[in-house]
Write a structure and sequence with these properties.
Number of helices: 7
Helix content: 10-25%
Strand order of the largest sheet: 10-11-9-8-7-12-13-16
Low-confidence stretches: 171-185
Structural class: alpha/beta
CATH superfamily of the largest domain: Nucleotide-binding domain of ferredoxin-NADP reductase (FNR) module
Largest sheet: 8 strands, mixed
Length: 277
């Protein structure tokens, strides 16, 4: 009998530094993967951690990892040419076919941009396949912005609102005050919810939305989108913070009668709104 818990070795092809705490590890991999799915990334003797896919390439996938604990601390000691162990993919992910021919709104908070990055990347490369895409991506401060070069490239075909909660340690000169970032493009100061009224939608009743981020951000973002007129059944969220073993066997991902690792992590808002953790 096969053991579903046994991972396989994957070579690190490239390491991309975003901030002091967040790096993207480009890993050798061939197979079908959807944005929003996740893998278990592990190292012998240190354990494993569920990590969402942040990029899907030919013969490789990206994991954007935040250094926050024992496993990720050790992962950060490995660089291009080394290997990690992975197993997956797990979960249902985002189906880009559902958004084709629609107006799409993507709202992401912090590292929540990672699991939706594949969706944004897909329509950035194929802008004719949707009627319009607005991305509202929020971060704590300018130093915590992820995927700066990607965001600058996406602006060519998509409506991008990049915002920060505060300027942090940024200088208070006129350039910082007006919110101009030389690498990522223009950013604005404020919470993601402040920019919902500005989303340009031709037919709000048919628009679709994806919301991923910290629980408070998702709660108030979905409420803001509902107030704008989006339908509950047209909104999607990810409960990725509850991912655990990937197989639904440990029970840690269970919320009511749902197993996030198996039934999610992507849920329609109509399902997710009643999932009380």
């Amino acid at each position: 009998m096969s053991n579903d818990y046994i991972p396989f070795r994957s070579k690190i092809l490239e390491v991309i530094r975003h901030t002091d705490l967040e790096y993207t590890f480009r890993m050798e991999y061939s197979g079908n993967v959807k944005p929003g799915q996740f893998f278990e990334v592990s190292l012998p003797k240190y354990g494993e951690a569920p990590i969402s896919v942040s990029g899907i390439n030919d013969h490789s996938i990206d994991f954007t990892i935040r250094r926050v604990g024992k496993v990720t601390d050790e992962v950060f000691e490995n660089y291009a040419g080394d290997s990690l162990f992975i197993r997956g993919p797990y979960g249902n992910g985002f189906d880009v076919d559902l958004y084709k021919g629609k107006e799409l709104v993507v709202m992401a908070g912090g590292t929540g941009l990672s699991p939706v990055k594949g969706v944004v990347e897909y329509f950035s490369e194929r802008p004719g396949e949707c009627l319009g895409l607005t991305l509202i991506a929020g971060f704590k401060n300018p130093d915590s912005i992820l995927f700066r070069e990607d965001i600058a490239r996406w602006r060519e075909n998509l409506n991008i609102v990049l915002c920060v909660d505060s300027l942090g340690d940024a200088s208070k000169d006129s350039e910082a005050t007006t919110g101009h970032d030389e690498i990522a493009g223009d950013y604005r100061v404020g919470l993601v919810t402040q920019f919902i009224p500005e989303i340009p939608l031709k037919d709000v009743s048919r628009a679709e939305a994806i919301v991923v981020g910290p629980p408070p951000m998702m709660r108030f973002s979905t409420l803001g989108l509902l107030k704008k007129g989006l339908k509950e059944e047209n909104m999607w969220v990810s409960q990725e913070r509850k991912m655990c073993c990937g197989l639904g066997r440990c029970g840690h991902c269970r919320i009511g009668d749902k197993y996030v690792c198996l039934d999610g992590p992507v849920f329609r808002y109509t399902e997710s709104k009643d999932m009380i953790d």
